[in-house]
Sequence to fold (114 residues):
Amino acid sequence: MPRSVNVVAARHRRKKVMKLAKGYFGRRKNVWTVAKNAVEKGLTYAYRDRKAKKRDFRALWIQRINAGAREHGLSYSALMGALKKANIDLNRKVLADLAMNHPEAFRSIVEKVK
Fold:
């Protein structure tokens, strides 16, 4: 009896991976075995870095808030503690944006909690 393979499904699976490999350099874009490994690794990095992106942005916001707070004689931790005590619920993203793009609004917040 001849060997039966589901070529339609196999081709669909390979085309899907080759489409993801579009734009890769060298054999990674057009050789199945190389492309499969490259795409798998790329998807692993994508999953990992979606998590890391959140950490990176939080760290950036904290640095910006700290720089803005130190211009007004406070440290980051002192500012955040004072904000919590004054029941001002602004997240770090908004505070960082104010510190960077709207310094007068940031100053008024700092003066309110001092």
Q: What stands out?
A: The chain has a mean pLDDT of 96. The chain has five helices and no strands.
